[in-house]
Amino acid sequence: MAATVTSTEQVVDAAIGTGAQSRGGNGFHKNGGGHADDDGLARRYLPARYRIGAWVAIGSIVMLFVALSSAYIVRSASGNDWHPIAMPKVLWLSTAIILASSVTMEISRRALKRQEDRSYGSWLTLTVVLGLGFLASQLIAWRQLIRQGVYIASNPHSSFFYLFTAAHGLHLLGGILALTYLLARTRQRRATIEGELRRVGAAEAATIYWHFMDGLWVCLFLLLFFWK
Amino acid sequence: MAKATHDVVHRHEPPKSFIRKYIFSLDHKVIGIQYILLALSAVVVGMAMSVLMRLRLSWPEAHWTTLAKIFPTGFAGGIMQPEFYLSLVTMHGTIMVFFVLTTAPQGGFGNYFLPIQIGAEDMAFPFLNMMSFWVTFVGFVVLLSAIFASGGATVGSIGGWTQYAPLSALGEIAGPGQGTGVTLWVISIAIFCVGSLLGALNFITTLLNMRTRGMSLMRMPLTCWAWFTTAVLALLSFPVLLGGGILLLLDRLAGTSFFIPANEYLGVLAGSDPRLPYHAGGSPLLWQHLFWFFGHPEVYIAILPGMGATSHILSTFARKPIFGYRAMVFAIFAIGMLGFFVWGHHMFMSGMSPYSAIAFSILTLSIGVPSAIKTFNWIGTLWGAKIRFTTPMLFAIGFVSVFVAGGITGLVLGQTSLDFFFHDTYFVTAHFHLVMGVASIFGMFAATYFWFPKMFGRMMHEGLGKFHFWITFVGVYAIFVPFHAMGLLGMPRRYAQFTEYEFLKHAPPLVMFVTIAAIVTVSVQAVFYFNLVWSVFKGKKAGENPWEATTLEWTTASPPPHDNFAGVIPTVYRGPYEFSVPGAPKDFIMQNEPEGVEVAAGLGETSGNGGDGHKH
Amino acid sequence: MGRALGVIIWFITLASVWMFLSGRWWFPASISEHGPAVDSQFTITIIVVGIAFTAAQVGLGWVVWKYRDTADAQRATYSHGNNRLEIIWTLVTAVVFISLAVMGQSVWASLHLHAAPPGSYQIEVVAQQFAWNFHYPGKDTVFGKTDPNLIDDTTNPVGVDPTDPNAKDDAVSPTLVIPVNRPVELVLRSKDVTHSFWVPQLRFKQDLVPGMAIHVHFTANKVGKYELACAELCGMNHYKMKSFMLVLPQDEFDDLTRMAQGPFQDRKGQLLDKYQLPQY
Fold first, then answer.
1. Is the model's pLDDT at B116 over the cut of 90?
2. pTM of the predicted structure, to 2 decimals
3. Between chains, do B290 and A71 touch, taking CB under 8 Å as contact?
4. Which of A154, A178, C60, C264 has its CA 20 to 30 A from that of B300?
5. What Å distances lie between residue C68 and B398, B468, C64, CA to CA?
6. pLDDT at A14
7. Scanning every residue of chain B, which has its alpha carbon at the shortest distance from the alpha carbon of C60?
8. A chain contacts of residue B247, beta-carbon cutoff 8 Å
């Protein structure tokens, strides 16, 4: 591959790895870091670094929820006090909102890849709004339960409901903060190639994380209310 | 070309202010030293507590005037109370396992040397790296605050570092120190989990993404393989501890019943008294499963970096390639992976399903196989060698010896039928102290003596180092081999004294012998601390490669510049342990030495794995 | 230095092996039917462990002695290993370790994979901070009902319901009394935290977990008095949560267990004086 690059777009495109060159999924090379041209070395790595970081972080968060889920399953069999609460209907709205937010996030990311900064920015904003809307709907669900007198210690199922929604909500809030950071700091095209790669890399990592949060919610929702 | 790389990756100027250089530094080298300093401080607290424990066990009726002034309830009548003893046990275990064995080997030496050994200029996420240290530090402060939170009766909680529920979940009514002491313990450990996860994230991303040209996975030093596997273990196990800790906190503070069953009676029945609220349906075993699912990988987290350092140092001072590099990598993986499937061997007697106990038992003895492979390969590395007995080498050899001594009793404890006798006796304590409290520490000593010249540009005093080694090596055996004898007598763990039982009447001489050995060995560690401080200022100046080693950290200045390689990132041409290559001018070839110094064909044994990471 | 290190390693090896072989610190004599099987499995294991330990340490000591760097020594042997050796020693180790593992399950299976044999004498055990409570069914061999609301640590530690007719002949005592040569089934419970039942001579240990009722069984085959200790950290007085286990000849046992509370305690007291602890 030539050491000189004619445009930022080509560099960014090449770096993201959707082009013809395949690099084994997450951008790490099968036989080590050596390549014919040093020039593109670090630049090629930058987006992959954030992507790998996102997946690694997701790995640990998955383990947290796997631990809590297995506690859920064990606890359901352990006493004779397992009385699942009735699902607050607003949670269907939560699910719809977060699914929609994944769609908007994806649209935003693709816009960025096409270098359409305005579109990227607006869809990103919409995603943040939907994210906040999701959290609001969760709080509504909590309020409904509290009004019915169902608290965290009322029964084991309600304990897990509050725990799962709080844990997921906190992680989602972290994601919202990350998206807000993206909006504030990197909405504009960057001046240097490296800056641009960072921008794209950060957006990609945030998208991966956001989709994960969506999928996680769906799993928790199913576990809490459809698993027997 | 290389300059462009430097520009792109390291755009910021090196920091100028004291705070940015040494306190809130983004430089992995500074962060590594910070972790090591944290461990050096924590281990003093942990050792002091263990000496107090030994004194209590040897002289249960002794009077302690000074301590009684600080902890009047804990030393009622001047005598150390059993709950005070148990809180020492708890804090000793917690501090040593978390803040010593899970900080220095990985966060300390790993942070400092992983980037350099793979030819990178820093970790992947320097800001997160800094956060990981400071979060860990805060966790330590929170834990230490528990010392003063129990109103002078204890130095924290009394449930052991394992904090089994419901003893840990019921609050002060279950015993002194079980109130705020446990809450602070859980919060401290939860904070520690977060710090550790941030670190693991960095290690994994850095290793996967930032290796320099030519540094294929199979050309990495074994230290890097060890740090990588350790990080994966941490990534997958610490969240489970965090989950368990959250559930425990909720049981304690929010009235949930994850671990607390119905009808708890502690002088009053649950639900009938505000000191013991209503609970129902929880499972104490659930805590044990969550804890040990983390707890077992944790002990491999504690030992793997030491294994990596031992392999590295043995090869360097034997002037010989490591025997069976590929097998060593396989063994590290096998230990790491199998480590996730054996946690039930801590729970044979717990009341869990006896069928699962059988499965755990057989898996547990299987994990001895990769450990045995590593031992054979270490000895194989020394066979036919030309050994230079420097202090790091002495500790690396010592590591092999104590690791065998400690690991081999795993074959006893891992069998369900034998665990009927040995569970919760000093035989268990012997086993884990030899592997964690000795082998892992020897790994750290070896690493310190080995890398000190690189980190500080000066050699440590060799005479003091050798003195430190000899006394410590004999001392640790003198302390922990008798523990096996105590276990054979049936001596239970976590007893504040052994005077109540006839069947323990032969114990006191053993207990006394161990106490004396412990006092001597702990005292000698002062020599190590003195050596560290003295050598920083007065040690002989060290060049780039005082040990004539081969890996990338020895290609740069001592200490390395801010960006590790002064702008010229090395390219790697060969494997990490090319010592005594026939036909080569010197008895070592560095990894960044370009091709041209070839390996002559047909020499020595049938070669196992190839010098440059590829099969022959 | 290499020679000194080798010598010290061998010396430590010798001292450690001596500590085990000397017999000065060893299990107290077994008093259960399954005990000898545990002891022989341990003997086999410790021989394997001892050989492996000695071989590794002697080997280590030898290589550091022989291959120390001396002025006239040649360069080290340039070798990256030996695949065949690796395979051989891996296989041998795996076979030995797995065999030990499989052998090590048989006593466990005999005690835990089968229910108590018919005719076992059943006793309920209720542990608490920091005492043991043993509940005997009495002459009618039926346990009286218990109710947690009736628990009182001084007068009614396990909460026996006095209105239940089956409870009239029950006895609750801090001492465990079992018949010799007859299977005993213990139903293990706890009032507060996790404890563990431990009589070294029995070669048996089991946790008592609050919220669970764990059934275990064994057969003692030697009459006498033995100490019972707690083997799971349960609080500040864990180290003195002590009691006794009396193994009685069948006739003495039958006499005792037909008695109800008061007479039971008196007779048990006499028996505790009559029998001595083993000589250690």
1. yes
2. 0.93
3. yes
4. C60
5. 15, 21, 6
6. 53
7. B379
8. 68, 71, 163
Q: What are phi and psi of B587, to 5 degrees?
A: -85, 20
Nearest-angstrom CA–CA distance, A134 and A169: 9
Contact A60 B209 (CB under 8 A): no
Across B256-272, b (16+ Cβ under 10 Å) vs e yields bbbbbbbbbbbeebbee
d(CA C66, CA C57): 14
User: In chain A, which residues have their Cβ closer than 8 Å to the Cβ of B124?
Assistant: 49, 52-53
Peptide bond between residue B14 and the one before it cis (omega within 30 degrees of 0): no
Task: Give the residue, B448 or A32, on which the prediction is more confident.
Answer: B448
Please give the residue that has the higher pLDDT: either A40 or B584: B584
Q: Which two tokens stand for residue B391?
A: 């202090």
Q: Is the dihedral of CA A60, A64, A65, A70 positive or negative?
A: positive
C-alpha to C-alpha distances, B158 to A111, B63, B191, B277, C148, nearest whole angstrom: 58, 21, 20, 21, 27
DSSP annotation string for B475-517:
HHHHHHHHHHHHHHHTPBTT-S-S-S-GGGTTHHHHHHHHHHH
Interface ipTM: 0.96
| SS3 label, residue B150 | coil
What is the per-residue pLDDT across B220-263, written as a single tens digit (0 to 9) for each?
A: 999 999 999 999 999 999 999 999 999 999 999 999 999 999 99
d(CA A40, CA A23): 14
- Does B477 have pLDDT greater than 50? yes
Confidence of residue B16 (pLDDT cuts 50, 70, 90): confident
Residues in chain C: 280
CA A106 to chain centroid: 11
Q: What is the tens place of the pLDDT at every residue in B279-337?
A: 988 999 999 999 999 999 999 999 999 999 999 999 999 999 999 999 999 999 999 99
B533, B458 in Cβ contact below 8 A? no
| Cα–Cα distance measured from residue B581 to residue B583, given in angstroms and rounded to the nearest whole number | 6
Q: What's the residue count for chain B?
A: 616
**Does the beta carbon of A48 lie under 8 angstroms from any beta carbon of chain B?**
yes
Give every strand in the sheet of C204-208, ordered side by side. C176-179, C243-248, C224-230, C195-199, C204-208
Structure tokens at B385: 């060698």
pLDDT tens, position by position, A51-69: 999 999 999 999 999 999 9
**Average pLDDT in chain A:** 83
Write out the two tokens for B182.
Answer: 């446990």
Report B:526-565 residues touching C (Cβ under 8 A): none
Mean pLDDT value of segment C51-65:
96
**DSSP codes, B204-270:** HHHHHH-PPTT--GGGS-HHHHHHHHHHHHHHHHHHHHHHHHHHHHHHHHS---SS--S--BSSSBT
Q: Classify the C-alpha dihedral A190-A192-A198-A204 as positive or negative.
A: positive
> Chain A contact for B282, CB < 8 A?
yes
Exposure b/e, B553-566, CB count within 10 A at least 16 = b? bbbbebbbebbbbe
Beta bridge partners of C244: C227
Amino acid at B291: F
Strand-pair category, C121-128 with C131-136: antiparallel
Residues of C in contact with B291 (CB under 8 A): none
Q: State the amino acid at position B104 in one-letter form.
A: A
**3-class DSSP assignment, residue A221:** helix
Please state, in angstroms and rounded to a whole number, the distance separating the CA atoms of residues B573 and A86.
64
CB-CB: which of B357, B488, B587 is closest to C75?
Answer: B587
Q: Kindly give, in sequence order, each residue whose CB lies less than 8 Å from that of residue B269, ignoring residues fewer than 6 positions away.
A: B263, B276, C148, C149, C151
The nearest CA of chain B is from the CA of C148 a distance in Å of 6
CA angle C78, B595, B330 (to 5 degrees): 50
Nearest to B183 by CA among B149, B214, B206, B217: B149
Residue A82: both structure tokens together:
């397992």
